[in-house]
Design goal:
308 residues; alpha+beta; 8-stranded antiparallel beta sheet; 25% helix; binds ligand PPE
């Protein structure tokens, strides 16, 4: 990863190399943390963080589901994001707020541990490789099930859940595919290790419902709104693996991925189609601040005078 100058850590800006924790931290031992992934884009209005408030509300909800009380309000976290982006000076960057149980008492109960909060900002290019958005990617249905609602709350963007994502990603990559698709315990399409999934069939756009072991993605919500505004019909419905094989188009969405077409699922070829292209373009216009209609989703950052 590309290091930047500062990391916001528990209210202070510290040098990148000094943002350290103790090895006995609860979050390191048990994956007890909640995090976010947010993008800032270089827009005509200035560097703008996309849907920052919604991401911070999700962070607060994720923490709550881990019985964790964040020591900072949403407004304070918003200020922290602005501060770290401004000081690091990258108009276009990825932002990673992370709250975790820190160093205090070892043992699975989280009682007796402080809640540490950090915010990183750093440049991060195409999540699934340079060609992912143009040529499309290949995906494999994972043999790993997506964590179910009674395993770990999938509504939470909790650090521990990502072991599930890591296993699915590694299996797919080692098998020569770009990405994994995970099914729920009862065999319905859930999401990717870091993306939500959409299918286009006979002119209708479908995506799994929020109850289907998926992260309630902010890009998912954005794409649904944009698609409806463009006049498309969007349905939230249960889908099985063959709905993917027989789809006209399949695409994945996420903050890091943006909108990436799938050109094959398992070894069934799927074309990269016009609906995906239209939504991909509209999404980029929105996040890059070229669309009046969605200007309210951009939170413009005032850069520090000393930053580039
Ligand atoms: N599902 C999962 C499992 C997920 O991790 C993400 C985000 C999404 C759906 C899409 O959510 P949203 O970003 O709000 O549209 N994955 C993050 C990358 C995880 C990683 O560190 O790698 C992201 O896109 O930032």
């Amino acid at each position: 990863m590309q290091a930047t100058e500062k990391i916001w850590m528990n209210g202070e800006l510290v040098d990148w190399d000094d943002a350290k924790i103790h090895v006995a931290s609860h979050g390191l031992n048990y994956g007890s943390g909640a995090f976010e992934g947010i993008r800032c884009y270089d827009t005509p209005q200035g560097p703008s963080v996309f849907r920052l408030r919604e991401h911070l509300v999700r962070l607060e909800n994720s923490a709550r589901l881990l019985y964790m009380e964040l020591p900072y309000s949403i407004d304070e976290l918003r200020d922290a994001v602005h501060e770290v982006v401004a000081v690091n000076g990258n108009a276009s960057c990825y932002i990673r707020p992370l709250a975790f149980y820190g160093y205090g008492e070892l043992g699975v109960s989280s009682v007796g541990n402080p809640v540490d909060v950090v915010v990183l900002s750093f440049p991060w290019g195409a999540y699934l490789g340079e060609d992912s958005q143009t040529k499309g990617i290949t995906a494999k249905i994972s043999s790993w099930e997506r964590v179910g609602p009674n395993v770990i709350p999938h509504v939470a963007k909790a650090t521990g859940i990502y072991l599930n994502s890591m296993l699915a990603t590694m299996e797919a990559r080692r098998g020569g595919y770009d990405e994994a698709i995970m099914l729920s315990h009862d065999g319905y399409v859930a999401d990717g290790p870091g993306e939500n999934i959409f299918v286009v069939k006979d002119g209708v756009i479908s995506t799994p419902p929020l109850s289907m072991s998926i992260l309630p993605g902010i890009t998912r919500d954005t794409v649904i709104q944009i698609a409806q505004d463009l006049g498309h019909r969007v349905e939230e419905k249960l889908m099985i693996r063959t709905d993917l094989y027989l789809a006209d188009e399949v695409f994945m969405v996420g903050t890091a991925t943006e909108v990436a077409p799938l050109r094959a699922v398992d070894d069934q070829e799927i074309g990269v189609g016009p609906v995906t292209r239209e939504l991909q373009q509209a999404y980029l216009e929105t996040v890059e601040g070229r669309s009046e209609r969605y200007a309210h989703w951009l939170d413009v950052v005032e850069m520090s005078p000393s930053a580039a």
